Amino acid sequence: MAIHVKALRTTIVALGLGLAAPVFVPAGATIAAQSQKFDEARDTISRTQSDLQRAASFHRNSKKEQERYQNAQHHLSELDRHFAKGKFDKDTMDTAIEDIQNILDHNTLQSQDRDMLMQDVNQLRSIRSNHG
Fold first, then answer.
1. All domains of the chain, ordered by start, with CATH?
2. CA proximity to 69, closest of 108, 99, 106
3. How confident is the model at residue 131 (pLDDT cuts 50, 70, 90)?
4. Which of 44, 61, 90, 114 could make an S-S bridge to 109, C-beta 3.0–4.6 Å?
5. The whole model's pTM is what?
6. C-alpha–C-alpha distance, residues 39 and 33, integer Å
């Protein structure tokens, strides 16, 4: 009987330390979670594109300012295309973030547009850190 109690204690301790049998997560649950992450990222990209369009309409921009908006929109669209296919492209994400940061650093913006774009770039950075 003492042997059974000792074996039971060992099992309980092992369970408490997470050393018991592995827990299997169905593949469908993992795919659904990944799909949800991509959908949320695509929502952020869409909102960022809308915010960029609003900021670009503030006043007549110089050619250089217009180019910055076009670059950001292009790279966000490319990033969205990757997410729509279920893929994460680190380089395109980094480029899109840099493009928006360039707008924040160099373009003439209304305070509301600057705040919205700062929030967008922070959300994109968060997505970037969560994906790799």
1. 25-131 (1.20.1440)
2. 99
3. confident
4. 114
5. 0.74
6. 10
